[in-house]
Fold each of these.
Amino acid sequence: MGEVIRAVVQTGPRQLEMREFPRPVIGPDDGGLLRIEACGICGSDVETYKGHLSQQWLPMVPGHEPLGIIEEASDAACARWGVKPGDRVAVEILIPCRSCDLCLAGRYMSCRNRIGSHGGSQPTSRGLGPWGGFAEYIHLHPNSILHKVRGDIPAEIAVMFNPLGAGVRWAVHIGEVGLGSTVLILGAGQRGLAAVLAARAAGAGTIIVTGLSRDAGKLELAHSFGADVTIDVEKEDTVERVREVTGGFGVDVVLELTPMADQPIRDALEAVRWGGRVVLAGLKGRRPVELSTDVIINKALTVVGAFSVDSRGYSEAIRLIESGRFPLERMHTHTFGLDEVGLAIETLAGEVPGQDAVHVAIVPGAS
Ligand SMILES: [Zn+2]
Ligand SMILES: [Zn+2]
């Protein structure tokens, strides 16, 4: 009998159970084994937990933002990843084929033959599991994508590579925020805050962030990350306020990051300047949204959808974390142990009275 490792398995909506798995035995073609230090939680974990996303992969081990230490890896995997046992790495969600035309063009997020994902679908080939980050250890498939992270940063901070990666990619790479840009960020969740930070690091001019009245703490945090103006949308009109701040001109770039709400999309089109860019990343539960496409035409806008994060986004986010230039510890609000994943997700979802969560992480060693 080999050793066993523990992982949290989701079996249905709001149903999680701790299970034991045989500890994967890593052969020469099997990639490696990662000891999880921390795994972040985001809005999509909340949706998966509630059962709003596809159930076709259940039962599965969720947790798609894993950070950990290489426990062991085959020589071939070490050479390919440029790591050795003992290194700390951040793991990307997707396990692509690395061979199809889209992979070779750098668009591996749309890989035609994806092998699986960490925290989602399970690889069928060389799949030793568990895969999701809510576990003591995970198997790293030979095709898993890893990023080295400096070892001396607290795990709860280092694991922010995922939300920060979204901030960098959505604001800077897709939004094209640069020196002097005026930016409106709709939504002050962890990704909104990450976008503030990325926009500030990229040299943005004026950064404006919106939130609800109950987001007062997050808007305060936005200020400390470099936002110039915050708007409580329950007390002020977003578009009017943006016009005021920009001398009637509108902003260069708008990031729409609010979940489920329609009005922010219409606000985005109104608040952006003529010829500006609007990045959409706030999911609306597949509902149609009513808006005037004439505004897009008459203002010659570029409207772009932003899906997930890519390698460049992650690696630049990790450099930002390692720079120590931002008070990231202020964003981390909650740490939970592996046996508290349900509570952790409910805390991030705002279902736990009195808890105002921004960034929540599972740390298997905690509790
Ligand atoms: Zn996530
Ligand atoms: Zn591919």
Amino acid sequence: MGIEQKLAAGAENPAPQRAKFREMKDGTAEDWALIAGHFRTFAGGVAGRVLEHLRLLDGDFGGFPVDRLEHSLQTATRAYRDGRDEQYVVMALLHDIGDTLGSFNHPDVAAAILKPFVREELHWICQHHGHFQGYYYFHYLGMDRESREQFRGSPHFEACAEFCEKYDQAAFDPDYQSESLEFFEPMVHRVMARPLATLYSLGEPEDAPADTAEGAE
Ligand SMILES: [Fe+2]
Ligand SMILES: [Fe+2]
């Protein structure tokens, strides 16, 4: 490659810019403008990363009649076919995504991922579904199937019980014709395109569609 070609390539692919501080307390406005720019691009890819992680559940049966990806697809498909809105369907799809990293508290992991993007009721359902799902099997393992009763006073109790009864506990049928993950991907991208609330107000991800609060109540 000649010198002119190298210069041209360098202009197209300049060395990555990095903040100059070695300790955060020495940071400058210039450093943080640079980091904020990167954050907007990175945060815009969250839906893609979540979908990639969801695929880790493929082939993970854990003794169940269907693997965890099929269970997720089946839960979401049942909610979708029952006329639930997009935020609800995405919550249903992702409700067990925490199984890989949060084997002892998987509802917390999924709820934390969903929290900025769904209404409070759906966050609550996701975070508490472990107790409510336990109604269907805790008694077989020496645990209290009435564990969900501690939440009886919550305004979301019935909604969570309904999620588990209609969709979650019902989603272990190997013969059910679920929609594919590809079917749900655009919904995940729409719901996760823009946070409804976040601590980090560094601007919106680029290319975020204008209307992403679809389905919010
Ligand atoms: Fe679960
Ligand atoms: Fe589940």
Amino acid sequence: MARLLVVHHSPTATVRTLTDGVVAGANDDAIEGVEVVVRPALEANAGDVLSADGYLLGTTANFGYMSGALKHFFDTIFLEAGGALSDDGSAAPGGGGKKPFGLWVHGRYDTTGAVRSVLSIVGALPWTQAAEVLEVLGDVGDDARDSAYELGGTLAALLS
Ligand SMILES: Cc1cc2nc3c(=O)[nH]c(=O)nc-3n(C[C@H](O)[C@H](O)[C@H](O)COP(=O)(O)O)c2cc1C
């Protein structure tokens, strides 16, 4: 059975609504043969990453960057997960590879830097972006929740 790993930082009820939507979509009844594993970003480890076939990442925007929790996840797993570093210590672009990932980011006014920060790191992992980034500002309404469900379903369907 394929495994989809959901790594998220969901510190508020608003963000948890999005995360719940993503997880619900990934567990859609129509999708078969996919085990969905959900880990808070501060608890996920390299074993979780290496044993997964695809990834869904969720974070808040904080100070124009991803959350410290998701950054901690990358700091922890990056090299074991096949990430490449440049001589200056930045993530080396062109990781290549086929494992699909999706990303959602919640903020209150601007998620641009947070999205960029995640994509620059993931670009050095052997993963490939499989869905448009879901960026949500402010309160989470039905449209955002539907988009989150669709994101989860899209990644899971790719692995089924
Ligand atoms: C320390 C801190 C930094 C933040 N920085 C950003 C930011 O750069 N961009 C943004 O859109 N929102 C920012 N926010 C808002 C959070 O992203 C937002 O509070 C979080 O997604 C949870 O959403 P909620 O407050 O609506 O429940 C920040 C919040 C905090 C506490």
